[in-house]
Amino acid sequence: MLHDETLHYLDNAATTRVDPAVADAIRAAMTDLWANPSALYTPGLQAQQALGKARAQVAKTLGCTPGEVYFTACGSESNNLALRGAAVARRGWGRKILCSGYEHPSAALPVEQLGKEGFEVDFVPPGPDGRIDVAAMADRVDKGTCLVTCMQVNNETGAVADVETLARLTKERNPRTAVHVDGVQAWLRVPAALAGVDSFTVSGHKVHAPKGIGALYLRKGYHIEPPYLGGGQEKGIRPGTENVPYAVGLGEAARLMAANSRERKARVAALNARLRQGVTALPEVTVNSPDDAVPEILNISLNVIRSETMLHFLEQRRVYVSSGSACSKGAASHTLAAMGLSARAIDTALRISLCGDNTEQDIDELLTGLSDGLAKLARLR
């Protein structure tokens, strides 16, 4: 992938740059696969075949069958489809929903809305270390629990939840309970965890595909109530003429990420180690991510300088990080709040997120910028 040595982009959990090879695949599909994939003539069949190939490419990385993969517009739509669809389908016998307390807004807000519609919602907070106790969460499952949802990798701290154990324990207590996993930050970074899981969300723009394409895994035989009505595309789960070019791009991104998985993971792990060593040497700085978080994400608190102040200071050096989830648009981190961090720690938090095309220079420029900022910027009293 092309790398601009003067720009140090370290906000890959918000979005990744589109791989040029993915862009090329999309461009070719836009001009060559222009027909409606539902059409019964040859150009339509070619578009349908391209969709099938892309579906198979995504399925291969998840360890599922192509028929269990449904294309959507994004991870947020996938979460909404899965959560509302599962709850509504089970309303007749269960109205209790268990949700981890640090979910992405696209999971937390639909669950909150379901609570306003008569469901009983129980949010399970992470511990001070950022981890979810999945055994304790599963202990809250009872005969009226219709849905359990927990993200596999937290988008702000990189904390990993053992969702397969959560699914197993949940099904032991109530086999009818639906288990949904937001896998957006986990996909192609940690092994796919589908054992016992009924639905699993992925997103294109986190893996060097464009914004506007995602996918939803639905276990074969599993039922949700689709919220949309239309022409029956995606087996009625997500009706509407499919975005063939972007689906092709998602498939190509999945193939490329899987193909260089070992090399990429080793490089990111080395960069994370360099980053952790550097930030822990800085005065006042504390690390909020657990030691076993995914290496792609590191959350820190400066404790003496507000996040926004440091962000603008780093931006002048073309170093780009974030203060938390991009979808929160600068709002205080609900993840760090759920962990019980102080208001100061939350107000001074930065999220640094890596990908396979980051370099040691990116890390060093960030560390130099943080060090200079800590020395020069006005401190909180």
Protein architecture, described:
The chain is built from twelve helices and twelve strands. The chain has 381 residues and is of the alpha/beta class. The protein has two domains: 8-18 and 261-376, Alpha-Beta Complex (Aspartate Aminotransferase, domain 1), CATH 3.90.1150; 20-258, Aspartate Aminotransferase, domain 2, CATH 3.40.640.
What's the order of the H and E elements?
A: EHHEHEHEHEHEEEHHEEHEHHEH
User: Any idea what the CATH superfamily of the largest domain is called?
Assistant: Type I PLP-dependent aspartate aminotransferase-like (Major domain)
Please describe the biggest sheet, giving its number of strands, its sense, and whether it closes into a barrel: 7 strands, mixed
Question: Going across the major beta sheet, what is the strand order?
Answer: 2-8-7-6-5-3-4
Number of helical elements = 12
Task: Determine Rg (CA atoms, Å).
Answer: 21 Å
CATH topology of the largest domain: Aspartate Aminotransferase, domain 2
What multimeric state do the chains show?
Answer: single chain
Q: N- to C-terminal separation?
A: 44 Å
- The proportion of strand residues reads 5-15%
Shape: globular
Helix content: 25-40%
Uncertain segments are none
Number of domains: 2
User: Could you give the count of β-strands?
Assistant: 12
Which structural category do the helix and sheet elements fall into?
alpha/beta
